[in-house]
Design brief:
With 729 residues, this protein is mainly β. The N and C termini lie far apart (114 Å).
Amino acid sequence: MRRRWGFVFALGAALVVWKGEAQVLNDPSGNYRLTASGVAPRNFTIGSAFVTGAGSALNVRGDLLGTGNTTGEVFRTDAPTANSTYWRMFRGGTQYGLLYNLTGSNDFNAKVLPSAGNLWLRNSLDNGVRLNAGTLTATIGTYSPSLSSFVGIGPNSGIIGTQGAWARLHLDDGGTVITGCYRPWMKNGIYMSGNNDMMYVGQLFRAGADESDAVVAWGDNAASPAGPDHLRFLFMGDGLEGQEVTRIMGNGNYGIGNFDGAGVQPTERVDVLDGRLRIRQLPGNSAANSLTKVLVVDDSPSPSGERGVIKWRDVATLTGNDCDWTLQGAPGTNSHISTAYAGNAGCPQQQMGVGIGLQTPKNKLDVVHDGTSGIGGFTNDATTSSAHQSDVNKGVGLVGRALTNLVTSFNPVTAGSRTFTGVLGTSGSGAYSYGVEGAATIASGVGPATDVVGVAGSGKAFNNANRVIGVYGAAAGGSNSNTWAFWSDGNTFSLGGATWIPSDENLKTDVHEVVDASAILAQLSPKTYRYNGEAYPFLAFREGRQYGIMAQDLEQVLPEAVREVTRPAEYDQEGQLITPEATFKAVNYDALLPLLIASNKEQQSRIARLEEMVSACCANAMIDAGARNSIGQRPVQQIAEEKNGLLRIVPNPFSEPPTVFYTMDKAGRAQLLASGSDGRGIKVLQEATLEKGEYQFIWDTTSLAPGMYYLSLLVDGETLVQKAVKVDR
């Protein structure tokens, strides 16, 4: 310690160092203190220079530290590991705050006690971050909420400095305080105020219910000039503010588009500035036929404020003065549409008819095509009329006639060699074109009906016609051979008839014999299955268990017997999809018939050869071993052994399925056969064209009864026979 005069002495456990007006004492308890000699102390300086009038009780002259102090530390406190550390702040004997660290934690804490106010972090402009005191309440407009522990960021002169934060996080830019837009539920969110306006983004907890809403709220000052202030969505493309995409007005009008660029405001609840309005998915519910109002768009010319506004109009005003057809009921009801009936005021009466294609109808409904084209026409003769009374007995609603020069009867004698068609349907240039389409239905819960026939065809002659065809279909030109003169979604029935396919040799070329049919069929694996009618209800599959071959399997063996087909989609008269398009593989089972015939011939040839071989084998087996040896003959097994084991059965005898080893000393067609001891029950175990080498085969004998069997190996006409014996376990 530097001093101008004084002395130091030690007495007992006390050490006193003094200067003229104050001294530092070390009492027997080990405490150091600065005491006065009649004058209150003003500061205590640590350093080589005394600072006159220092503003702090303790002045540490860190600026006078020597060059050896490389850490730059000026002031430091330390505490034992087991103790907490506190820096406390008092004024007038009352503690206001402290900085501390608690034992067992690495947290650095700054705490404001209830006796103090709020916690501030300020900058040089006296602005900053404020944490409201734990007991803070304020009056905001007509509300007096608790604002405890809310955090605000903003100037001291604004809301943050005067009343404190109004939400968990309050961002204030100064200006007039707007109290009318505040609500006490604006707690768990971000409250923004500035320019005499506000915005809140957060949650709204409804009282008494477990219901939380996500809220975006904004408010405008009522003073003039006021707003309008919008909720805007901006895409930050070009321009300082970016490009506006959507804005919502304070009155609830919703605008879509860049209204800022256009310099206008949304004037309707939904206002589309430009572009088009589209609904991708139309409702699937039933049509509202009972409603009598429709939506229309006002097409008033610009600059009318009504242009483009959607309005409603009564359906009845859309019909105009057309009286040809009258709806018999209220608009939208399931009613008849009629004309030419008694009491049809101002329109055709009951004695009149309806004609299409002619001015003077001969029946109630008379439709005639220009006869000069040779197509003819059709007439409704289901009701009594003087012109066609003979047709009443037919009981049909639509009669088709072929006409010559618009005559009213069909006369095949005078028609000569011309071709006449009662009903002709033509269609073209459509994605789905149908020449004639027939549909017959019976509603659910009605009936039972005897027959429901979509299209009925009848051709009759009495031995006086060269050909008689009930229904004739012709189709050509489909891509990928996807052309069908007849397609049936359902079972097909023919009474007393058969399906005939052109097979004349004069119609064919590039004809060859079928070889290795058995090998081809051996690669196929017939299956039993059920059709998946639930996934494809519109394909009308046969029900019950079916037998057949998977198209994908057959395609690997006979690709020419498999093709991919497409069933076209179906649409109603309104163009609505009824059933979707379906693409799948189909099989031509007729292609398998020649293979079955050829395979049967091959098997018959093999059986004949085996019968000869077995007969010879059995004849030799009738001679016992001793007799055979005595006449120079050897057992079959001995012959096999002498051929270097070209055919072996391991083990033999056996109780479990044995392994058959055989050697091909040259490439060729090999057949492995098994038969009973009497030569019957011949079974082909394996058949293939093999290369030279050694092979093995596991013989499944689980179904064989104990006894003696013969195993034969046929290689290009040469035969090896081995005796096999199965024993009980």
